[in-house]
Design a protein that fits this description.
heterodimer, A: mainly alpha, Histone, subunit A, two-stranded antiparallel ribbon, 3 strands, about 40% helix, about 10% strand, flat, B: alpha+beta, Arc Repressor Mutant, subunit A, 3 domains, 15 helices, binds zinc ion
């Protein structure tokens, strides 16, 4: 299965990545390898196998609706590269 | 060529839980300092793990059951991946291939609108754009508040069964009333606890057309206007031989138009995959039956009860059930006063207007129930007439003063004594010779004018029925 340059560029856009020409070539190669691996898996007959998304067949734990301690505003803003008046400041979006 | 609008809705409701969907941060973000109710889970910090809120699950199930859905026994969560500054994890935990519930319906004016699915997901944060309009365009930078991040939502998706803007509005009104009655959500569109997006297309001779999605409809009125606008736009494109482009459009309420969001949103490619931090979710029969058993009275049951027990009409019960607080207030009034028909009428005609004028909330008007009771008694005993009763009721609410006090201190008791009214009638007849002449020459309209003059002279206190009788007699004597 061959991945095209267009596929890689689309994924780059979705992942907000900026790759150089040489890196793109490398990605085409990596992506193709991954897909080849899955193509191999798909050779198996799974018609009678239940799809499995989680290894443990148990229901996810539930918690009671009780308020707990969170982080302070200072801690939150301290992790951000830029802030303004209690908010996290981010660059122009469009 | 037969053109028909085809509308489907996607509605998000914030659930009335104390804490967020996957962490124990509180959900009451309105009016809070930014970034003060967040934790490693809702900020998506490395090493944190989400744990599902049991109450959120119960509320979601309650809504799904009330919408006549089939609850799936095994469901799961997915990651919906996209980059946006209001989403700190860069994915939203949502549901994808196996939602919580499917195949329901809600009846609107006798028509079943099918519900395709109901699923749980988490809300995103809030962005503030420091521009004059508050909109994103032209902002040099944006500010992020993560307080809303992780607040539990249900998304309700309909089949494209809705065929007019009015029906869409009625659907959302009924759904809001439902989630309020269920205690699932407060359904406040202005504050964004209930949000509605629409998919719309035009079918041509029964063949489906291209869809557009409309966002940013923040009121019932906006839903109706935006859909009417969009239907027209589609029709014009189709009738001029053009093709509708599949895209997302933004409703601009002040301009009354939809505009394309093309280019601002990357084509939807969310690369969903099963959330590895959560196990699948098994819904037991016990849980479902427990929730079914504790279902509160639903809006349609309430309306039926009002019709059957109180003899109210369709329109009356529709207005009274439009919000849960109004329906609760009406029920409280009837418990206290009885007389459901009169009470319904007084609430709808007088109280809603007064509440609007005085900028009150219905839920803060319980103090007025004894006042309404007293006004209706005074009216029934003939102590005051209808006009005075309305004015006294309004004043009693405004001044928080018992109606009987107002009536006594202002001397508003109705005058029903024929002799006492005869003087007033005679005076009016003397002072309005022209009207009398015109009445006597056959112009019946003049009678009402004269009646009005007598009411005016008696400062509105006269018993209109007695005035009518005396006036008729006196005019007869003149002819
Ligand atoms: Zn949190």
């Amino acid at each position: 299965m061959k991945v095209s340059r267009g596929d890689v560029e689309h994924i780059m856009k979705l992942a907000y990545l900026d790759l150089k020409g040489e890196e793109k070539e490398k990605m085409i190669h990596h992506f193709s390898r991954i897909l080849e691996y899955f193509a191999k898996l798909q050779e198996l007959d799974t018609a009678n196998v239940e799809p499995l998304s989680h290894v443990i067949e148990e229901s996810t734990p539930l918690r009671d609706d009780e308020v707990g301690e969170g982080l302070s505003q200072e801690d939150v803003l301290g992790m951000a590269p830029d802030k303004e008046g209690g908010y996290i400041k981010v660059p122009r979006i469009v | 060529m037969e053109l028909k609008p085809v509308i489907g809705l996607e509605i998000h409701c914030q659930l009335l839980t104390k804490t967020k969907l996957f962490c124990s941060c509180p959900t009451d973000y309105v009016g809070r300092e930014p970034n003060t109710i967040v934790c490693p889970v809702c900020l998506g910090l490395p090493g944190s793990l989400p744990v599902l809120n049991k109450e959120a699950l119960k509320l979601a199930l309650r809504a799904a059951l009330a919408l006549n859905c089939t609850i799936l026994k095994k469901t799961r969560f997915h990651r919906k991946n996209y980059f946006y500054p209001d989403l700190p994890k860069a994915y939203q935990i949502s549901q994808y291939d196996i939602p919580l519930a499917v195949n329901g319906y809600l009846v609107i004016d006798g028509k079943r609108i099918r519900i395709r699915r109901v699923h749980m997901e988490e809300d995103a944060g809030k962005l503030v754009h420091p521009t004059k309009t508050g909109r994103l365009e032209g902002a040099e930078y944006s500010l992020v508040d993560f307080n809303r991040c992780g607040v539990p939502l249900i998304e309700i998706v309909t089949e494209p069964d809705i065929s007019s803007p009015e029906e869409a509005r009625n659907f959302v009104m009924e759904l809001r009333s439902l989630v309020q009655h269920l205690g699932v959500s407060d359904g406040n569109m202005e504050e964004g606890s209930l949000r509605c997006d629409a998919n719309i297309s035009i079918s041509v001779d029964g063949k489906f057309g291209t869809k557009t999605e409309i966002k940013n409809m923040n009121s019932f009125k906006a839903i109706e206007r935006a859909l009417a606008y969009e239907i027209n736009r589609h029709m014009e494109v189709i009738l001029s031989g053009g093709e509708v482009i599949q895209e997302t459009r933004h409703w601009d309420d002040s301009k009354g138009i939809t505009t394309s969001l093309r280019g601002k949103e990357e084509a939807h490619d969310y690369r969903y995959f099963p959330e590895p931090d959560l196990l699948p979710l098994f819904i037991s029969d016990e849980m479902v039956s427990e929730i079914s058993k504790t279902m509160p009275e639903l809006p349609w049951d309430r309306r039926n009860r009002w019709k059957m027990d109180f003899g109210l009409g369709d329109y009356e019960v529709f207005v009274l059930s439009s919000s849960k607080v109004l329906g609760d207030f009406f029920d409280a009034c009837v418990r206290e006063i009885g007389k459901p028909k009169e009470v319904s009428n007084w609430i709808q005609v007088e109280l809603l207007r007064i509440v609007d004028d005085l900028r009150l909330k219905i839920e803060d008007c319980y103090f007025a129930i004894p006042y309404l009771k007293e006004v209706l008694e005074l009216l029934e005993k003939g102590v005051i007439n209808n006009q005075v009763a309305k004015a006294v009721f309004e004043e009693s609410i405004r001044e928080r003063r018992a109606p009987i006090d107002i009536v006594k201190s202002k001397g508003l008791e109705q005058v029903s004594d024929e002799e006492a009214l005869k003087d007033a009638v005679k005076r009016v007849l003397e002072e309005n010779e022209d009207a009398v002449k015109s009445y006597l020459s056959g112009k019946d309209k003049a009678f009402n004018f004269l009646l009005g003059q007598v009411m005016k002279v008696t400062k509105g206190k006269a018993n209109p029925a007695v005035v009518r009788k005396v006036l008729e007699e006196e005019l007869k004597a003149l002819s």
